[in-house]
Amino acid sequence: MLPPAVRASIGHASFRWINAVWVVVDRDCDTRTVGEWGRVCGASLGALRSICVMQNVRPKPSLTFARVLRVVARQELRHIRDTLEVDDPRTLRTILAASGLADDDRRRPRSMGVDEFLRAQRIITEPACCEAVRLAVKMGGVARDAVRE
């Protein structure tokens, strides 16, 4: 769990959002749907929507952001086609474009820092969300139980 001082500096809504995102980042497998995201967070779809709305973001883009952040954090950019469970090549191209990543495996970097990803991506542009991610990475992650607070 993030220390109370960090929680106070990012605010309650940001804290709940980053904890929900971090559940996806921390998983061994990809989280494909908002429904699945709610189940692994231990939150209802309504609660997950509320968490996102309080941050001025929507659930589906938040999940897409979390899925790509998981790949970036694991340094698996070259294997993104295998790491993200996406069946439609058009969907993958859309995700890659919004993430600021090249569609061509040979042009995509082997790794990318979180700050670089946050600057390149266009999925979540809410400054409070990006700052919450930076703080969570800096502090080494967040606890799963904090989503339900």
Q: Runs with pLDDT <50, length 5+?
A: 142-149
Counting H and I runs of at least 4 residues, what is the number of helices?
9
Total domain units: 1
| Spatial shape | globular
Number of strands: 0
- The Cα radius of gyration reads 14 Å
Instruction: Characterize the largest beta sheet: strand count, sense, and whether it forms a barrel.
Output: none
Distance between the termini: 12 Å
Query: N-to-C SSE series?
Result: HHHHHHHHH
Strand pairing plus helix content: what structural class?
mainly alpha
In round numbers, the mean pLDDT is 85
Q: What percent of residues adopt helix (DSSP H or I)? A: 55-70%
Share of residues in strands: under 5%
What does this structure look like?
- This protein is mainly alpha-helical and 149 residues long.
- It has one domain.
- It is built from nine helices and no strands.
- Helix 2 crosses helix 9.
- The longest helix has 15 residues.
What key phrases describe this protein's structure?
60% helix; 9 helices; 149 residues; globular; mainly alpha
Summarize the structure.
The protein is an all-alpha fold and 149 residues long. The chain is 60% helix and 0% strand.
List the helices and strands and how they pair.
Blueprint: H1 4-10, H2 12-26, H3 34-41, H4 45-53, H5 59-73, H6 80-83, H7 89-99, H8 114-120, H9 127-139
Helix pairs in contact: 2-5, 2-9
